[in-house]
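Why show two proteins at once? Because comparison is the fastest way to build intuition. When a single record is shown, students tend to memorize it. When two are placed side by side, the eye starts asking what differs. So, the first record is below.
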Amino acid sequence: DISSSGFLQRAFDLYLRKGYWKNHMETIKKVYTEKYNTMVNELERLKKYGVDFIKPNGGLSIWVKLPKDIDAIELYNDCGENNVAFVPGKIFFTDDTIYSNYIRLSFGAVSNEEIVQGIKVIENYLSKKYDDDNNEYLPFV
């Protein structure tokens, strides 16, 4: 390529030729497997609120279906006030009424501790939504 320095190109060539990338790939697999497992384990705890998801066979995100009466945008706004971000599912579809209770959670750029804290923020929102004082019901799974 003509825009990066020759030194960096030679260093990258050495990285590839010497096979250093293989060790890096093994490390990355371990890191992302641990993050994936943390996310799945934390999401399992939310099933008591009617949250559902299918474990993906790859990628760095998980699609989550919230209970029908939970709007992803409302949850997004609440979570944003607590420094937690995710992508509401509405933005991926043309019919935003059908998918208003879906969210996409990504785990690639956060630590295991941040995953746990983020799911706790979502859980706090759900537990407030279904608090007995509000006379609302807790959905059955």
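Second record. Ask yourself what differs from the first in the token line.
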Amino acid sequence: MTVAVSELGFGPAADWVSPASQSYRPASWPPPRDWAVSEDRQGRVVSRWGDSVWDFSPLAGKALKLNFGDGNEGRSARIDPGNADLLRMVMTWFAWGPRPVKAVNTLHGIFQILRPIFVLCSREGILASDLERFPRVLERIPGVLSPSGYAPAIYRLHKLLDARDKLGFVLVDVQGLKRLAAAAPDRGAVQTAYIPPRI
């Protein structure tokens, strides 16, 4: 993994999060577990990177949490620690990476569409980063993604594939993306809108 920390910065808009804020940029990549990922208007830490739940409610102005499933909070499906950390890396990339999302609601939406993949891998006893070695598990992904979230999930998985050298892992490779696109509820829409010609 070769990520310059200077490339990273919190993307979602918040009038009190600036480059001077503790949650604006991690000190290293991967981030340390005690790094503050969210803070309130007074600069008090709300959530840290290694927490089982990231609470972005102060930023959203409403209840908005990402439950990584490796703690005891809520009723969300469980995710084992290894997969929860991979999901944390994915969400860190989308929120703090070189082209981050611009709203915490968008971040929450990405989390909602991708989380079922990590739940599935946990249930199957594999790491999501090893999916390409387990084609039968990959074949089950269409069954855990919501129809409305299917095309956006393919799009985000492609973005993660593009970032594989910096992330240090791949969730779904080129062949896997082709197979998922072919299994889409609306195959044509996914292929034309989200699978670029080079794949």
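One difference worth noting in the second protein: Residues 83 and 127 are 6 Å apart (CA to CA).
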